[in-house]
Design goal:
Elements lengths: L11 E5 L2 E5 L1 H12 L2 H9 L7
Antiparallel strand pairs: 1-2
């Protein structure tokens, strides 16, 4: 399977209701970074008990 964003091979594939989408590591990281900066994720973090050992 190819990455949804480029022609590289997909490193991560998810499936939901019979639809499969794959992304390469680079695009996965980009999407995770974008999500981590969103208001939606910040709102959820407030509701979750997340232990961030840094």
């Amino acid at each position: 399977m190819e990455c949804h964003y480029c022609e590289s091979g997909a490193d991560i594939v998810v499936e939901r209701e019979g639809i499969r989408v794959g992304v390469c590591e680079r695009h996965f990281r980009e999407q995770m970074e974008e999500l981590s900066e969103s208001e939606w994720v910040r709102d959820i973090e407030d509701e979750l008990d997340i232990d961030r050992a840094e």
